[in-house]
Amino acid sequence: MPRAVNSVATRAKRKRVLKQAKGFFGRRKNVWTVAKNAVEKAMVYAYRDRKQKKRNFRALWIMRINAGARLHGMSYSQFMGKIKANNIELNRKVLADLAMNHSEAFAAIVNQVK
Predict the structure, then answer these.
(1) What keywords sit in the KW lines (predicted)?
(2) Could you report the per-residue pLDDT of 39-98, keeping only the tens digit for each?
(3) What is the domain partition of the chain in residue ranges?
């Protein structure tokens, strides 16, 4: 009995991977074995960096809040401690936006917690 192969599914899988490799450089975009490895590695990087993006943004927000707080004579840790003590429920994203784009509103918050 001959071996059964599903060439339709195999072709579809290869087309899907080569479509994902669109825009890659050199043989990574059109040679199956190279493209398969490149796409697999790209997916690993994408998964990892979705997590890293959250860390990077939190670090950026902390830097911006720290810079805004130091203009008013406080450190970041003092400012966040007083924010929590006064039950002001603004997250770091909002506080960073206020410090960056609405300095008068951020100053009002600093004055309220002092």
Answers:
(1) Ribonucleoprotein, Ribosomal protein, RNA-binding, rRNA-binding
(2) 999 999 999 999 999 999 999 999 999 999 999 999 999 999 999 999 999 999 999 999
(3) 8-113
